[in-house]
Design brief:
mainly alpha; two-stranded antiparallel sheet; 2 strands; about 10% strand; single chain
C-alpha cells in the first residue's frame, strides 16, 4: 500500500462508488482495499484509505448524506 499514490487510491474509490449504492466511509475504504487484493485493514491500509477519502472530500468530489457516501456530479 505504501507504493500506491493517494491520488490513485482516490480514483479507485470513485470507481467503487460508481458501482455501489449506500456505502458508508468504512465500507468504501474496505471495498477499495479489496480491489487491490488487500483482505485485512491494517493500520497502513486504513491510513492510506482515509487519506484518499479526505482528498476526495477536499476536492468536493464526494458528499456524505446521512452517513452514506455518494459522488458529486
Amino acid at each position: 500500500i505504501n507504493y500506491i499514490a493517494v491520488e490513485e487510491l482516490a480514483e479507485a474509490m470513485c470507481v467503487v462508488l460508481k458501482k455501489s449504492v449506500g456505502l458508508t466511509k468504512e465500507s468504501v475504504c474496505a471495498e477499495t482495499a479489496r480491489a487491490y487484493n488487500f483482505h485485512r485493514m491494517t493500520q497502513n491500509i486504513t491510513f492510506a484509505m482515509n487519506s484518499a477519502f479526505e482528498l476526495l472530500a477536499k476536492q468536493k468530489r464526494i458528499a456524505v448524506i446521512d452517513g452514506k457516501i455518494s459522488l458529486v456530479k
